[in-house]
Backbone:
């Protein structure tokens, strides 16, 4: 994997880059739609290609439990399994173990947990996390990290960060033993909201020389300013020639704020999950499609949107599908919301190329399109 | 609307025709997928076009209750509302009033009923049925008929058939008053399983000179041989130069049996509903995709199928999507099942053109692909 830094915005920390992977080139900054169970909910891969999705994120935890990574490996890996020939990033499974499973028993070795599906008992340690992701065959793998709850004391955050460092090192060692050159492993900076811990985490991870670095442990309940500040604290400690990935973030405004602070990659369930709940993004803010005022509305979701849904369907039809609980409601809403996110990223990349990203940021802050 | 009879099979009653409508030409025999609530469940219109769907059926009852035919009319009609520019057939709403609603009060004037959605009270009579379908703007409208339960006595069937005739006449009169030349109204032959009643119904409807005739009241629980016999009894009384439509039928084998008895048009929820339940049609019979034996199965649903799903996805992936309750399961299964039905009809048309339909029929009876 190779990262090219193409240009930098002169007045912000925004960067325009290009990430070369075994399954193709990714233009950064990039938004990665989430395909939890080897499918971006309601989307066919060809629809994602038409939307110009460059890379997907899939969740190791879910695929580990069902259908099992050995099954997917036997069937040729995740790309073949789900019919997606562009890049895939997988998380380590850690975050879902901490957020979805029950009866966790955490030690320095890893986490013993019970499946949220059937209560069955499983173990996830650094080496397992690598085995799973190798089996899935993702282009970018993530180290296993200890996921800290918010709020946490400095003591707790320090302990958790140090455990994450140990796991990162073990992941790296196991990856060097069993990984192949078509896969890359990213480190994850932890340390809660404490600048000294974030600095230590970043520096020690950089010492291990990963091909990319994620900022983890954000968007877990902390105030927005704290999230932005934490990114600002971490960023100077990360090497300029490696991609930076802000995990699980966020609203369109968050993407712009992240980019302004030097982030290259984002993932979030927001566009797809909100779509299924009838919450639709527009250039003038969001609309909730079930509202009665859209019953006879012949207008598209967003008159300035060029997506296939806005070119064809009225709010009245989309409201009808939502109220009638039709599957097509999820499909069309997802197409629109993903287009909104991907188009936001396209515009962000253009503004950086023109060295006018601050203009975009100012406009985003003014309209608050989220 | 114009119907061309292109050729007839020499050894069966199968016909190859072409129906010209305001929204395009339909090659017959044709299968019409069902788009109950102004959407073929889980399908985007472009997917239906790619599958070469020629005409859809939509349900007046559902659209009358939600979002209302006045709303759809105001938004430019059903074609524009749902983004489908090819022909649409609408039923009268009668069948659903009889099967879905509660507290019905039937008189010679029509049916008072309560909505299955919210219990609200509504009236459907012959004139209303025409008003609704005119508002929807379908290419082919159906007369309101009295839907007889199975089994029924000769007395009940006679009374119901005669009421249906009266309603057909009133529908025709109202249609002549308010309909436009882009819409056609079909009559519906009733009479239960009684040959004398079916004959009377057919002859008197033909006397009213409809541009097409449906055979109604079948596939309501009667044995298959009785259904086939009833078609055989009705068919000779229908004019050769008008299309014949067998309502609500059926399995792939039923389609072939219907074609062999002179039927030109079919509709059924079977391919789409079965798809959502994981029941998939194949040339060697059906498969139930949730079965554990498909967990690691790298093969497509049907190796001889050319549909986009069989060209890309394994049974293992489709099983995973079904078990994980993913929306994409419904989408992919629906694409496959609809392709199976539409491909069956394409092959039927080819065999009729070659005057070898009996070969197809024999093969269908042998493999029993349903």
Residues:
């Amino acid at each position: 994997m190779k990262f090219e830094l193409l240009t930098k915005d002169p007045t912000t920390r925004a960067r325009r880059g290009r990430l070369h992977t075994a399954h193709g080139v990714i233009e950064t900054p990039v938004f990665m739609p989430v395909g939890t169970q080897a499918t971006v909910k309601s989307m066919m891969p060809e629809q994602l290609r038409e939307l110009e999705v460059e890379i997907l994120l899939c969740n190791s935890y879910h695929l580990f439990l069902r259908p099992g990574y050995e099954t997917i490996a036997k069937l040729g890996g995740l790309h073949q399994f789900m019919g997606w020939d562009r890049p895939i990033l997988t998380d380590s499974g850690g975050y879902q173990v901490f957020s979805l499973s029950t009866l966790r028993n955490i030690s320095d070795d890893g986490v013993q947990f019970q499946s949220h599906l059937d209560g069955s008992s499983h173990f996830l340690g650094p080496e397992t996390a690598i085995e799973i992701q190798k089996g899935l065959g993702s282009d970018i793998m993530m180290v296993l990290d200890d996921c800290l709850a918010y709020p946490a004391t400095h003591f707790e955050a320090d302990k958790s960060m140090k455990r994450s460092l140990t796991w990162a090192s073990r992941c790296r060692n196991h990856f060097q033993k069993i990984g192949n050159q078509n896969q890359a492993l990213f480190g994850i900076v932890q340390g809660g909201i404490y600048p000294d811990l974030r600095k230590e985490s970043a520096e020690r991870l950089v010492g291990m020389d990963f091909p990319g670095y994620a900022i983890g442990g954000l968007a877990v309940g902390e105030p927005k300013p704290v999230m932005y500040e934490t990114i600002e604290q971490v960023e100077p400690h990360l090497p300029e020639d490696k991609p930076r990935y802000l995990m699980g973030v966020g609203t369109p405004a968050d993407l712009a704020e992240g980019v302004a602070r030097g982030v290259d990659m984002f993932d979030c369930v927001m566009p797809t999950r909100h779509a299924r709940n009838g919450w639709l993004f527009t250039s003038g803010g969001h609309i909730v499609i079930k509202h009665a005022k859209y019953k006879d509305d012949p207008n598209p979701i967003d008159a300035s949107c060029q997506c296939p849904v806005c070119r064809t369907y009225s709010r009245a039809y989309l409201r009808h599908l939502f109220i009638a609980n039709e599957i097509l409601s999820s499909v069309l809403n997802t197409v629109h919301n993903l287009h909104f996110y991907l188009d936001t990223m396209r515009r962000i990349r253009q503004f950086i190329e023109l060295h006018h990203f601050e203009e975009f940021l100012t406009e985003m802050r003014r309209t608050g399109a989220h």
Remarks:
- Chain B touches chain A at residues 37-39, 41-45, 62, 66-67, 71, 74-76, 81-83, 295-296, 298, 312-314, 316-317, 319-321, 323-324, 326-328, 330-332 (CB under 8 Å).
- Residues 197 and 359 of chain B are 33 Å apart (CA to CA).
